[in-house]
Amino acid sequence: QVQLVESGGGSVQAGGSLRLSCAVVGVIYGGYCVAWFRQVPGQEHEGVAIFYTGGDSTYYPDSVIGRFTTSQDNAKNTMYLQMNDLKPEDSNIYHCAVDPRRRCLRSASAYKYWGQGTQVTVSS
Fold this sequence. Notes:
mainly beta, 7-stranded mixed beta sheet, globular
């Protein structure tokens, strides 16, 4: 059984930074795709970062590119989302998700394992 445990959310002022963590508890053989999602009102979840653990590139949408970056600590089975220059519109619940089938799609429905979500609140 695989679980994703998230941490690191909180409240900051605009322009501030937060780092979210997503620890993989359990075993996933080989590399896998990781995505960080947030909910868009009236739409499916928006993927704000998507990457393959065995690769060296990450997809970011225009809304966060240049402000959000991902990293991973393989020894700890933990992925991170560093969020800089936060804006009030970044306020949301952020979920990490894993697709063991390595498709790295932008659709949330492609992801099998989900973290519990962590709240990010950015005040102006």
